[in-house]
């Protein structure tokens, strides 16, 4: 079981690091958030198989993941149409 916990932690950490390094490119931000969400989903589903959580929670999380991905794609299309590209530019 330790190997699976380590795998979930490493995959979440890789998603978090890619989120921090590629913060100006919107498509890579979406992919890194999806990596983090998938690692959390696999963690929840492994706990569900052990009997520590309900299957309903895993299905609810999966539905929220799909809604978040759809919303992210809608935002990417909006930014691409309004700004002409999918890169962020911050002026502080």
Automatic annotation (TrEMBL):
Transmembrane feature ranges: 6-22, 29-52, 58-80
Entry superkingdom: Eukaryota
Keywords of this entry: Membrane, Mitochondrion, Transmembrane, Transmembrane helix
Gene3D superfamilies found in the cross-reference section: 1.10.287.3510
Keyword Transmembrane helix set for record: yes
Protein name, UniProt field: NADH dehydrogenase subunit 4L
Gene: ND4L
């Amino acid at each position: 079981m330790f190997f699976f916990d380590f795998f979930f932690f490493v995959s979440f950490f890789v998603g978090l690091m890619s989120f921090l390094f590629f913060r100006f490119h919107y498509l890579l931000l979406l992919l890194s958030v999806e990596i983090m969400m998938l690692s959390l989903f696999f963690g929840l589903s492994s706990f569900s198989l052990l009997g520590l959580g309900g299957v309903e929670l895993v299905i609810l999380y999966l539905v929220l993941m799909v809604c978040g991905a759809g919303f992210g794609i809608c935002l990417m299309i909006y930014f691409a149409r309004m700004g002409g590209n999918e890169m962020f530019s911050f002026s502080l």
